[in-house]
Amino acid sequence: MDRHLKSWLFGASVDALTIRLGSPSEAAVAAHRAVVENWVHAWQDSRLDVRWEERRWPSLGRQLLPVVVTIEGADAIVAAAGETRRWQSLQQRRAQLQALDDGPQWSAVLVETFRYWNSLADNDFDRLLATVRWLRQNPDSGLLIRQLPIPGVDTKWLGTHRTAVTALAVPLGVPEHLGLRERELLRAVVIADPALRRGLPRIFAAPDGELAGLDFAASQVLVVENLQTLEALPDVPGTIAVFGWGDHATAVAGFPWVRNAPRVVYWGDLDTDGFDILARFRAQCPCESLLMDQASLERWRDLAVPHAAGGSVDVAWLTETERAALDVLQRNGLRLEQERIPIGAAVELLMAAGSVRPR
């Protein structure tokens, strides 16, 4: 029915629908006479184009039964199918959406996006319509999602229905990003040396733009991939630790105070993703790795867990011992998560760095 409703909604011709009713046999009528009489009366009262045929049965005599019904027009067909309410709702939705634009291509957009707005609950369609209207009037608002002055539309709702909103809004001249400002990531930082804090908290979080503008003079910067590991890090002289945040770690490589640090250390999971991030970080900023070599893997291999190998790594940016560790992990389908390794082992290596050599 959906396919027919869509085509009829956008002006396709409606062929007459002819349905054979399957008249009951003499035995069936005799066994269920009241039911059959009600069925016959219903067709007599239907106001549809019904063809009747006479049946002459020895036990029941002459009977006039409906055998074929012909229904013409979309309204009549959907009424016969019990879909009148839905059909009227679709007509109203199409009219409301059509009113958004009178351009020659807009009807084609509504056809292409039918699957998005056809199945929505009434309240969600109302929000969709209100959102597209507002975005068209404010295509470069620069607002956060939670700031949108649209009843019922919040971050969760737009996250769920963003595809539908974008499909309708972009053809109306709204940018792909809907003219909205995304919430900035707040990256966690641990100033692990009291002498470097200068009034700042030991642990804080800020957007990358603000972090890049700070004037730290750390002798070593540690980029850590696990937030709990970062927060558990004790004080280490001359050290500032930064949350890597997965694929966002490469942004840290661009911070001036990171690039100017005599020593930069990356510590991530021992798996394909971890080594991929290390390689991409190192491609932008020279760094050492921490506990991501073959010796570390063998030392704590009993803490590794099964993990299907996937993805690829530009091994040209890895050291020989890092490549050896990655090879073992991939051949054996393993991963060793950073937080499984005792943090004391990392602190010992950081402290043992002693006088930091320039890069």
Tell me what you see in this structure.
This protein is an alpha/beta fold and 359 residues long. It folds into three domains: 2-80, no CATH class; 100-172, no CATH class; 187-352. It is 42% helix and 15% strand. It is built from 17 helices and eleven strands. The strands form three sheets. A six-stranded mixed sheet has the order 5-4-7-6-8-9. Strand 6, helix 11 (227-232) and strand 7 form a beta-alpha-beta unit. The longest helix is centred in the middle third of the chain and has 16 residues, at 122-137. It is elongated, with a radius of gyration of 35 Å. The relative contact order is 0.07. The model is unreliable at 354-359 (pLDDT under 50). This is DUF3322 and DUF2220 domain-containing protein. InterPro entries: DUF3322 (IPR024537), JetD_C (IPR024534), UCP028408 (IPR014544). It holds the Pfam family DUF3322. Residues 5-168 form the DUF3322 domain.
In terms of topology, how is this protein built?
Elements: H1 2-9, E1 17-20, H2 26-31, H3 33-44, E2 49-57, E3 61-71, H4 74-80, H5 84-98, H6 106-112, H7 114-118, H8 122-137, H9 155-169, E4 187-191, E5 203-206, H10 208-212, E6 220-224, H11 227-232, E7 239-243, H12 249-252, H13 256-259, E8 263-267, H14 272-284, E9 288-289, H15 294-299, E10 305-306, H16 320-332, E11 334-335, H17 343-352
Parallel strand pairs: 6-7, 6-8, 8-9
Antiparallel strand pairs: 1-3, 2-3, 4-5, 4-7, 10-11
Helix pairs in contact: 8-9
Please supply descriptive tags for the structure shown above:
17 helices, 359 residues, 15% strand, alpha/beta, 42% helix, elongated, three-stranded antiparallel beta sheet, 11 strands
